[in-house]
Amino acid sequence: MDASASSTEHEDSSECSSDCDECDQLLRFLSKHPCPSQSWVETIFHSDFPSQECIELRSDLKSLHCNLDMFDYHSLEKMWKAGGHVQEKEILREVGEYLNQKGGIACMRLHYYLLSFALCGPVFIECDKPPAVKHYPRMIEMFWHNIGLWQS
């Protein structure tokens, strides 16, 4: 199977299967790069000298009514570790439902954007990222469809 076929397989699938090349690629990458720490998240909101990327993220999150009081580290860590897992969809939907109950769409957006920023931005992981990593936030969007006000 070529790379474009595996990407299509993952995006079209309702669940990640253990034989999906993109799933394996994502799982390997995430296992080598630990989830951002809670202090990293706090720095985004409270640093006196944030990077330009952090300033932009902070501004975006505030415009979406997201704040640090909504943050749940355990949920971010579960989202991180779910990537490429055989039960990826179930785990992510469970987290999305919990975050929706905790703080609605603003809470869901906070966790989604923090994970996306950590994975896809240049600040947290400074290396080339495989396509599976770049596609993962889109998978979360799709799996969270119709949880509360979330629409993919």
Verbal overview:
This protein is an all-alpha fold and 152 residues long. It has one domain. It has helices at residues 3-12, 21-32, 38-46, 52-63, 73-82, 88-120, 131-143. α2 (21-32) packs across α7, α5 (73-82) crosses α6 and α6 (88-120) crosses α7 (131-143). Mean pLDDT is 86; it is low at 1-15.
Total helical segments: 7
Total DSSP E strands? 0
Strand content: under 5%
Q: How would you sum up the global shape?
A: globular
List the helices and strands and how they pair.
Layout: H1 3-12, H2 21-32, H3 38-46, H4 52-63, H5 73-82, H6 88-120, H7 131-143
Task: List the defining traits of the structure above.
152 residues
Q: Quick recap of the structure?
A:
65% of the residues lie in helices and 0% in strands.
